[in-house]
Amino acid sequence: MSSNAQSYNTAGNELYLKANALRLENMYKEAAANYLNAILIDRNNAQSYLGLGICCKHLNNYAKAIKYLNIASELDENCFDIFFELGICHQLEGNPCGAIKNFIRAIQINPDNPQAILQLGISHELCEEYDLAMMIYNKLIENSRGFLKAYEHKSTLLMKLGKYKEASTVLNQVIMLNPDYYKAYAGIGVCFEKIGKITDARRYYRKFLKLKPMSEQAGFIKDRLYKLKTGKFPDKNLKLCK
Questions:
Q1: Is the pLDDT assigned to residue 72 strictly greater than 70?
Q2: What local confidence, expressed as pLDDT, does residue 12 receive?
Q3: Would you tell me how many other CB atoms lie within 10 Å of the CB of residue 217?
């Protein structure tokens, strides 16, 4: 390698490293500019396109993020992060069915990553493929028993399907794994309220408030407790706020 080529290569790497540092500081516009400059020097660096795609995602420009991530995937067909980020961007753009193939590829590269498997389930759920989503959540719980997000999404899907008793059972499993997982208490309260177990609903709502009295959901829970206390029973469209 000539000294000019070596200097050229070093400059591109320095820009890439600077972009990474800026991105880690959440300075996405500045990071994106440096990734672009790095790409001008080396158009075959998949990691620069990946970093640029991630910046565009955080800047809410999902179409551009997907464009750059697709280029990255052509340059490196075996990078988990590229396909995982592609899946996330398709979800954020409102195209969960387009996300599925990317999460599948990410899982092929790294079969043991629970986040990718969870996102695959979420994508199927968003595409209203509920049986596939449930199968994925169940398999994830079976293989990663401590991964609480899988239980949470399974219970949410069960509630969406009107299976409140089953959902409360799943959320009780969460509490057994982590008694401080406050969202589970609120979810169980909603389930019990839906099936008419008002005393139990109030009990779990109070447990939630004991754990998280100042949370964003506290107002919703206090409202439910007041309505139950005054005899105003569940609204037809009652659901737990996010």
A1: yes
A2: 75
A3: 16
Query: 49 in a domain, yes or no?
Result: yes
Same domain, 121 and 172: no
**Rg (Cα) of the chain, in Å, rounded?**
23
Domain tally, the chain: 3
Do 118 and 179 share a structural domain?
no
Instruction: Provide the whole-model pTM.
Output: 0.86
Contacts of 185 (CB under 8 A, 6+ apart): 175, 204, 205, 207, 208, 211
Minimal CA–CA distance to 134: which of 110, 116, 150? Answer: 150
CATH code, domain carrying 226: 1.25.40.10
pLDDT band at 59 (very low <50, low <70, confident <90, very high): very high
65, part of any domain: yes
CB 181 within 8 A of CB 200: no
Mean pLDDT within 58-65: 97
Mark which of 51, 76, 101 sits at the end of a domain: 76
**Burial, 121: exposed, middle or buried (Cβ in 10 Å; 0-12, 13-18, 19+)?**
buried
* % of the chain residues with pLDDT over 90: 86
Would residue 152 count as lying in a domain? Answer: no
